Amino acid sequence: MSDILPFEKPRRRSRPVRVADAIKDWVVEQRLSAGDRLPGETEMIERFGMSKGTIREAMRILEAQGLIETRTGPGGGSFVKEPSAERARALLGNYFYFKTLTIADIYALRRALEPDLAASLAGRLDAEALEGLREIVDSYARPAASMEEERDQHVASLAFHARLAAHAENPLLGFMIGFMAQILSDLTVDRRLYTPPNPELWERGRGYQMRLLEALRDGDAETARATMRAHMETAQTLMMDQEAEVLSRFMAE
Amino acid sequence: MSDILPFEKPRRRSRPVRVADAIKDWVVEQRLSAGDRLPGETEMIERFGMSKGTIREAMRILEAQGLIETRTGPGGGSFVKEPSAERARALLGNYFYFKTLTIADIYALRRALEPDLAASLAGRLDAEALEGLREIVDSYARPAASMEEERDQHVASLAFHARLAAHAENPLLGFMIGFMAQILSDLTVDRRLYTPPNPELWERGRGYQMRLLEALRDGDAETARATMRAHMETAQTLMMDQEAEVLSRFMAE
DNA sequence: TAAGATTTGTTCGTATGTATC
DNA sequence: GGATACATACGAACAAATCTT
Questions:
Q1: Which of A64, A143, A188, A203 is paired with B22 by a 20 to 30 Å CA distance?
Q2: Contact B217, B125 (CB under 8 A)
Q3: Where are the domains of chain A?
């Protein structure tokens, strides 16, 4: 993986890092796939001529990247693993932790991508999938009775999109949308983006989701796309109002 | 960061992983930012009551995530670090290594996002930025004389988009586009997606890039958007032809 | 340039924990 | 339950990098 924008100073890499890279390359060369076993610690120690500690640090590096999994006991060892979407989201989240993302930034992408997702899913979800989505939407059918419930409803509403994304045929599209839902969910919770409640907009948003489900069931791609587009508009408005509210609360303190 | 789609079995987490998480939480609590120094190994050993090896493994976990950087010597130690875009791309790349992404998958997103990027950049690039982009486009002004040059030209053409993405005001949009350029660059190189040459389409693509630069210089957002959209069409056609070629080469073997 | 101080980097031996048979 | 095969963890010593004087 040579880099397309060649920066980052080539500082001296420690042994564990070099070992981790070597193992990664080896796995690729050997065409190992998820579940395949890697050589044990003792064999690694011999093969690389390094101490146990160094090898273990290397394994931890791979583990942190979600690439291996390690088990103790007989038949144990390290195994190649496909990184979970959850871990990939977390790792990418680290990158954005240091950036300032506005609601507008995120919605610029949601508006561009989610309508396509909706269209691509029309007529392709089975009854079970539709039922699961329906349950989520139903979970916020009635107004929240408390702040906590308000928050949970907002999170659930984002989980609706994450769930939809999980059904995407295009893995890239699915991941990106799931990732945005995750970020928004995190932002919603720790910046209290669920207050003040805005029942009218909220209800409109839920209405769009229900109509979207119908269009998906009926295989009507264009209605699904248009509905999602409209939904994104109201959702963005809702969240930007709340973002502004957060700012003014912040300044008032 | 509670998860929006709560899966993944809660297997027993090893000490280094727990220590790494604890340190991460501590950094957030203390509101440390990039460049700030973490406690040294010896202090960690005391604070956590764990051995040096365990602490070091924890540090390696954080390092692998691009969150810290460690230096030896006086004044050395571990320092909070903002993960580089490069590392974030690599980590996310691990996730997609196990997925099968088609050219069509990637272009579905490029078509949806890059025109927006182009429009958002109109009139916002300084002379230096425009010059840098111009140089890239010029680097493939004449037909490639060899396979290697053909490959390099394709990579450079993708670097044009990566460079553009680096100027994005929206960090999310910028990252996503840069990431796709990276994936395509990798695919291009290791699946030889630069053959057979298709001079006509290639030249049209380059023409779009030049017209795009003019529109960006002139601050004409709508022309920039339309030009990028057209460019994406021809680029997709070019690459899908080559992807098909790869498949038939593969089957012929 | 050289010496010394500081901090991480690496090794090795040993002991413990854990899952399988 | 006991033996076996693995990873996990500890501690002490030494090596290497880098800053200061």
A1: A188
A2: yes
A3: 15-80, 86-252
Beta-carbon neighbour count of residue A123 at 10 Å? 13
Assess whether B74 (CB) lies less than 7 A from strand C.
yes
Which of the four CATH numbers 1.10.10.10, 3.40.50.300, 3.40.50.720, 3.40.1060.10 does domain B15-80 have? 1.10.10.10
> What residues in B contact A4, CB-CB < 8 Å?
155, 158-159, 162, 178, 181-182, 185
pTM here?
0.90
The count of other CB atoms within 10 Å of the CB of residue B135 is 12
Candidate from A95-99, B158-162, B191-195 with smallest mean pLDDT: B191-195
Let me know: does B79 contact B69? Beta carbons within 8 Å: yes
Burial status of residue B220 (CB atoms within 10 A of its CB: 0-12, 13-18, 19 or more): middle
Nearest by CB to B173, from A2, A109, A172: name it: A109
* Contact state of A92 with B91 under an 8 Å Cβ cutoff: yes
Residue A222 CB partners (closer than 8 Å, separation 6+): A119
Tens of pLDDT along B64-100? 999 999 999 999 999 999 999 999 999 999 999 999 9
Confidence of residue B130 (pLDDT cuts 50, 70, 90): very high
Query: Which of A1, A4, A161 to mutate against chain B (most B CBs within 10 Å)?
Result: A4
SS (H, E, C) A127-160: HHHHHHHHHHHHCCCCCCCCHHHHHHHHHHHHHH
**Residue A25 C-alpha, separation from nearest chain B C-alpha, in angstroms:** 12
Q: What's the helix, strand, coil split of chain B in %, to 5?
A: 70, 5, 30
Residues in B closer than 8 angstroms to A185, CB to CB, are 2, 4
The residue lying closest to nucleotide C11, measuring its CA against C1', is: A51
Looking at residue B252, what is its pLDDT?
Answer: 60
Residue B241 has pLDDT above 70, yes or no: yes
Q: How far apart are CA B205 and CA B144, in angstroms?
A: 15
B209 C-beta less than 7 Å away from strand C: no
Q: Is the bond leading into B16 cis (omega within 30 degrees of zero)?
A: no
Q: Which residues of B touch A63 (CB under 8 A)?
A: 17, 61
Q: Is the CB of A50 under 7 A from strand C?
A: yes
Counting one residue from chain A and one from chain B, the pairs whose CB atoms sit within 8 A come to 176
Q: Which CATH superfamily is domain A86-252 in?
A: GntR ligand-binding domain-like (1.20.120.530)
Calculate the CA dihedral of residues B210, B216, B220, B226 and round it to 10 degrees: 50
Token pair 């991460």: residue: B24
Write down which residues 2-41 in B have CB closer than 7 A to strand C.
12, 40-41
Q: In Å, how far are A75, A125, A212, B166, B184 from A1, measured between CA atoms? A: 33, 36, 40, 19, 11
- CB–CB of A195/A147 below 8 Å? yes
Task: List protein-proximal bases of chain D (any atom < 7 A from a CB).
Answer: 4-13, 16-20
